[in-house]
Amino acid sequence: MSLPTPSRSLLRGSAILIIWGRQSNLSIPDERALNDWWTNEHLPERLAIPGFHRTRRYYHTSKDSSDDQAETTAISHSYSHYMVVYEVSSLSTLTSPPYMHALNNPTAGTQKFMPVLASMNRSACNVLLSVSRAEFSQCQRGGVGGTLAHVVFQAPQSSEAREALRTYLATEAWELILGFFPSVLAMHLLEHDEEASRSGNSTKSYDNVNFQTAIAGGGGGADEQGPKWMLLVEFTDPFGAPFASYKEKCRGFSEGLSAHGVDLSTLKEEIYGLVVAMEE
Q1: Fewer Cβ neighbours under 10 Å: the N or C end of the chain?
Q2: CATH 3.60.10.10: does it fit domain 15-67+78-279?
Q3: Cβ-based burial of 101 (10 A; exposed 0-12, middle 13-18, buried ≥19)
Q4: pLDDT tens across 114-130, in order?
């Protein structure tokens, strides 16, 4: 059977703000309060800003690696990993006066909980590529997958190599993923924009918050190593389902990245389950 050709983008804009990272040392009541604020106050506040079209929250847990070395440990420690994705009209939305006003006039809840997110990563990104299954091309509005793979890596330094990589991801890599994962829904390629990211990070909402911006494994800046790129791969598998295909490693994918100039030592991958998706 021939593979379907890429369809239109399922995203609701040409730029994305993405925040992700690990939390620890929160009591159960405190983490419940954090999630209550995040979903029921912060997301509606952001969706009220012009240019913010859709937002989604994701979650997964990981075990403390020290527990692997202590089989007799009575208590298993775990970390909560969170991700929030904002789909916006364009990168200029993330430096617009309405958004800057919201960031410089944080609510009491934001002032309370934002320091809890201090160890997370925050990145304003342009969407370089967005493809989806052709079977959903007739849908009037794009949907989201229940499981999301987030892959971060350093792109090649030269613009020619980056364009070759983008073309590879849009064609051969996408066909490879479609053929390997029956549950894949869409794939989006993002490029971190340092200026737009720093513009938001310097506002009052993020007082005493030092978001991580450097890619893990990368020693230099974009001028030395190329920009930070990310892939968001959406799956229709329920997160954690025993039959889910997203758990498998796609044969040939990492090799293809390496062949197109990606240093695999800079690559980091996390897989999240959907908490909530809301639109304007």
Answers
A1: N
A2: no
A3: exposed
A4: 888 888 999 999 999 99
